[in-house]
Design brief:
Layout (H helix, E strand, L loop, with lengths): L15 E6 L1 H4 L7 H4 L3 E4 L10 H11 L5 E5 L13 H20 L7 E5 L10 H5 L6 H18 L2 E4 L17 H16 L3 H6 L3 E5 L2 H5 L1 H8 L4 E4 L3 H6 L12 H12 L8 E4 L19 H17 L3 E5 L6 H4 L9 H17 L4 E2 L1 H6 L14 H17 L3
Parallel strand pairs: 1-2, 1-3, 3-4, 4-5, 6-7, 6-8, 8-9, 9-10
Length: about 400
């Protein structure tokens, strides 16, 4: 019988931190310095020219692409304060802070608050700027940078995340051109970042939490935010992404929506075959897409015998990788309302048969089960907002039930 052992620790046990910034991050040599890299595996996701407004489009795919990350560091703001921008300084700063708040909200849905670092940018040596930077209007005033730092500190405090400032850390001798730090400047930044990261228990404490990776259908998309909050402080919660793409059409699996058992098996083969940091525990569900039925032929998307085979294969795959597997049963549906649809049908009898088959396979392979179907079916009052998806308050209760179940599972 496959083992339910934990994933053996890799040689690299450092916590993983995304560094989301502009050119100071993208071109920064401070990543390789022992003050930072010696304690934390830093992933450079900086981009030259990035402003805080770019958070809205650029941060979600970065988070989706790095399921292994356990925290994030934001180092942005310089690009928002260019002298040539005709807006007032106060307007620039208020918009910058609004964009940063959106970034923190996205990060808080994924990471523990003590693993999120908001960093105020350092100063610029305006008298040493080269022609290119002068042409690009980088004559940023120290007053605006100071005001931005104050606003960022207040924002971090209200969000409950970590804050530090590079402030007046660098003098003109620490720049190669008044904007880009030289070797000495990078060394000082590394020392400052390292002190901020490791001078407090934040990142290293949260990195010790077990990592829970969720692969599920659109029902799991609905309870994602609530489960993320419920797991804070107990699990580093991640999932198959992209959430924004998945939410555009919950009936057709894409992005974070795992789809049917064949698609889930393919995804698990892909992520478990990568030589990178991976979660120790996987919570998996599939079934609602498998029982989709063609109204004209009665053919199911994945026949029951194929569903059994796919689930058997995925249990072996996860266990053979040394990870723990949790199975979550498929939730009920409103059959009458559902089957007014013309494109595909679902039937309760199929849902019950596929859930029963899954439970049998999980018992055989000693996989703990969170019976979300039975829990949801027992709820009183209105449940559905459409044919199969639940009202927000129901999704919230499902998240609380899953989190409570995680505490009591027997391995």
């Amino acid at each position: 019988m496959p083992s339910n052992r934990y994933l053996a620790p890799s040689a690299d046990t450092r916590p993983t931190l995304l560094c989301f910034g502009d050119s100071i991050t993208a071109n920064g040599l401070w990543f390789a310095a022992p003050e930072t890299a010696g304690h934390c595996r830093l992933i450079n996701v900086g981009r030259a020219g990035r402003t805080t407004a770019d958070i809205h489009t650029e941060l979600p795919p970065v988070l989706d692409a790095h399921a292994e990350a356990q925290g994030i560091l934001f180092l942005l703001g310089l690009e928002d304060l260019l002298t040539g921008d005709p807006r007032s300084g106060g307007n620039k700063i208020s918009l910058c802070l609004a964009h940063l708040k959106h970034g923190l909200d996205l990060a808080l849905a994924r990471f523990a608050s003590n693993s999120i670092f908001l960093v105020a940018p350092g100063n610029v040596a305006t008298t040493s700027l080269d022609y290119g930077d002068l042409n690009n209007r980088y004559q940023i005033t120290p007053t605006l940078l100071s005001q931005l730092s104050t606003g960022m500190e207040q924002l971090a405090r209200s969000a409950g995340v970590c804050f530090f400032s590079l402030g007046n850390l660098l003098i003109p001798d620490h720049f190669s051109d008044g904007l880009k730090p030289n070797a000495a400047g990078n060394a000082l930044i590394s020392q400052s970042v390292g002190t901020a990261l490791y001078g407090r228990p934040g990142l290293t404490a949260s990195a010790a939490l077990p990592t829970l990776y969720v692969v599920g259908d659109s029902i799991s998309i609905d309870y994602h935010d609530a489960l993320t909050r419920a797991c804070a402080g107990s699990f580093q919660y991640t999932r198959k992404g992209n959430l924004e793409i998945a939410r555009k059409d919950l009936d057709n699996p894409q992005g974070a929506n795992g789809g049917d058992s064949a698609a889930v098996l393919e995804h698990l083969r892909e992520i478990l075959g990568k030589p990178s940091d991976l979660p120790s525990t996987l919570a998996v569900n599939c079934g609602l897409h498998d029982i989709k039925t063609d109204p004209s032929t009665g053919t199911r998307q994945v026949p029951l015998d194929c569903y059994r085979a796919n689930l058997t294969a995925l249990t072996h795959l996860v266990h053979d990788s040394g990870r723990r597997l949790i199975w979550i049963t498929s939730t009920p549906l409103d059959e009458q309302r559902h089957n007014f649809r013309s494109d595909f049908h679902r039937f309760e009898r199929d849902l019950n048969a596929y859930n029963a088959a899954a439970l049998e396979i999980m018992r055989t392979h000693a996989v703990p089960v969170i019976d979300l179907h039975t829990f949801t079916a027992a709820l009183s009052g209105p449940l559905y907002r459409d044919h199969v998806h639940f009202l927000p308050e129901v999704s919230q209760r499902q998240a609380v039930f899953i989190r409570a179940s995680l505490k009591t599972l027997s391995w």
